[in-house]
Amino acid sequence: MDLDSLKAGFLSYVVDDIQVVTTSTLRIIGTLILAKLIIHFGSKAVEKILINKAGKIIPDNRALTLSGLLKSILRYAVYFVAAISIIEIFIPNAAKTVLAGAGILGLAVGFGAQNLVRDIITGFFILFEDQYAVGEYVTLAGVTGTVEEMGLRVTKIREGGGQLHIIPNGSINQVANFNRGGMQAQVEIGIAYDEEIDRALYVLHQMSQDFSRKWSEDLLEGPDVLGLVRFDQSDMVLRVVAKTKPMRQWEIERQLRKSIKESFDREGIKMPGPNKIFIPIRGGEPDA
């Protein structure tokens, strides 16, 4: 074999390799671009179907929850198909191989991906039972905040301070939802021991009637004056409660405190402050 034949064979081999690499690279890039486009336009379609028509067929927060979940499912499905397609570029019939090894894969999932499976199953039951939805104020896994997103595997909670918590659904074993049903606002106020309890209660009743008219849009019941609830070291504690619409309990509590203070000041009812004890010093000032 002469030198020219070797060169020709080498060049042919190199050109074939370059063609294979180029073709494979273009197929991979095309697959990734197509996956991104499917996710993008699929997410837009989900938003158009659910969010834009929210309130007509299903509630707004329910639509947001379903939208996030469907987009999460779409993203996982597209990534899986794209990964199989890329693997098939290097390993022909990879999909058949994966299906043939489904038993082994299931065993591996059972031992190595228990948390993932638990997260997905728990997320499904959270959605099915409608335990909470996007936009609701909840306490999950010790975190209190607003649900920003609910996915197939995780739930994202935004705290009042701005922190974003990403909580695996499998770790959620108890839910406190502040948006379902009426909430209770409760205010306790102390009066001095030398004040007349009946007079203070009368002032609170009058204040409650005016307050219920002023804040009727936020109140479901009350305010109701429960009366004297306990004796503290320096005051007698009275309690006022009201039933409010969801997420309005804190504002009602603030306004109740303000109204009670103004009513007591107007009627001259004293609320005890910090005790100050003055000890006179005899024989001149103490040494520095």
Automatic annotation (TrEMBL):
A GO term from the CC aspect: plasma membrane
The keyword NAD is annotated on this UniProt entry: no
Membrane topology recorded in Swiss-Prot or TrEMBL: Multi-pass membrane protein
Family matches, as Pfam families: MS_channel_1st (PF21088), MS_channel_2nd (PF00924), MS_channel_3rd (PF21082)
InterPro entries: LSM_dom_sf (IPR010920), MS_channel_1st (IPR049142), MS_channel_C (IPR049278), MscS_beta-dom_sf (IPR023408), MscS_channel_2nd (IPR006685), MscS_channel_C_sf (IPR011066), MscS_channel_TM-2 (IPR011014), YbiO_bact (IPR045276)
Domain Mechanosensitive ion channel MscS: 115-180
Keywords: Cell membrane, Membrane, Transmembrane, Transmembrane helix
Protein localization: Cell membrane
Principal subcellular localization: membrane
Sample GO molecular function, one term: mechanosensitive monoatomic ion channel activity
TM region(s), chain numbering: 73-91, 97-117
Domain Mechanosensitive ion channel transmembrane helices 2/3: 73-114
The family this protein is said to belong to: Belongs to the MscS (TC 1.A.23) family.
Protein name in UniProt: MscS Mechanosensitive ion channel
